[in-house]
Amino acid sequence: MSIDIRNITKSFPGYTALDDISLKVATGELVALLGPSGCGKTTLLRIIAGLETADTGSIILENRDTTHLPARSKNVGFVFQHYALFRRLNVFDNVAFGLTVKPASERPSKQEIRDRVMHLLKLVQMDWAAKRYPSQLSGGQRQRIALARALAVNPKVLLLDEPFSALDARVRLELRRWLRKLHDEIHVTSIFVTHDQEEALGPTGSW
Amino acid sequence: MQQRKNNTTAKSRTHAKNDPAAMQALLVGMTLLFFAGFIFMPLWLVFLQALGKGWQPYIDAIREPVALEALRLTLLTAAIVVPVNAVFGVTAAWAISKFSFKGKTLLVSLLDLPFAVSPVIAGLIFVLLLGSRTPLGSWLGDHGIKIIFATPGIVIATLFITFPFVARELIPLMEAQGRVEEEAAISLGAGGWRLFRMITLPNIGWGLIYGMVLCTARSIGEFGAVSVVSGHIRGMTNTIPLHVEILYSEYNYTASFAVASILVFLALVTIGVKTALEQRLEGSHNTRH
Q1: Domain total of chain A
Q2: Statement: the pTM of the whole predicted model exceeds 0.90
């Protein structure tokens, strides 16, 4: 699924976050947006996901204009900087959430949901933690669950907002390598926001 | 809340261990004396007076139709007011804590108005607004709707007095939690109602129940505002606090205290529920990262 960002402008009271930004990401690519904090990277990501609305411009996902779709209909996977796991749900229910809230006509059966969630938890090497709650996990583990949760609904694109910035250096390096490997396996078009130059070159290029 | 603060100061005091034994004894003694004089003694006196002539007059006073009617009205009022204010409180807290809009600061300040205004004034406002001699009141009267000196007036006045409790409890909680879990749920395809039921409501659950307990306590005990709008019609518009006052002013002390003991009993139940919830709430705060 390609991403085509056309002439996006976004102003907040007092400053302009994005000024006529255009960008194309080809299907299956993993692209890093690099820049200092507060330069508008996150805003752009939030606009693609529909969590923020652009003042002008449009977002085209695979030849379809999604600019005015509500966030919940965009089918965009979003991984937040501080994980944003549902604290009242256990790991299994967190990952299953996107599937269980589908309208009855599209919702997979209980068994299918279970299989899919366990498959994803294995993929992120967290299948042992299905019954745990987010508060019982470390930062790196939480972020892997957040990734599994975003992937559960088969998103057309995956957006990662500084996903490793809250983690310590060793875990960050490990997760970066792991994300690279994961992307090689599943090939979902991904945009990755970071303010860390090394990180930007890391997962998107080669080590 | 208050209790939690006291706990931490008490803890830091024992940690410091600077207080000589005499000082400690004095402080504990003063606290106990205060509790004895201002809390235990009045409670004890209520029951002493209520049971002063034995169990039979006590039971008679409580079983009197007028007293039962007052109890019914009090519980009915609470049963209407608490759910309405829970819905209002959640709505207001959600709007205030998760969105920014014009006039938000004003709205937050206005939320405290029922606490700041004397309840008697609050009651008078509704008499002036809805009384039978006002345009609105007389129009409603022509259509057979009586509000002041009737049950609806009591409910409205109590709604006004107790509306900040739930919102006040939830706003700091929801502000601390932020919007990020809701955003995650939306990006996963959750619609408004599912989002609220599966994410927002569980996250605020205990805070909401705690706010509702405080709201219940106040709506059962409210005197001033209700007194103004009720008209004190026995067996019709008397709540328990008003009934207690009437009996007392008629020098019917035993009956007055007997009925008052129902209020004490309801208050003790409320405190019990509140304490139990505080412990649950504390537990859920700790699991927050």
Answers
A1: 2
A2: no
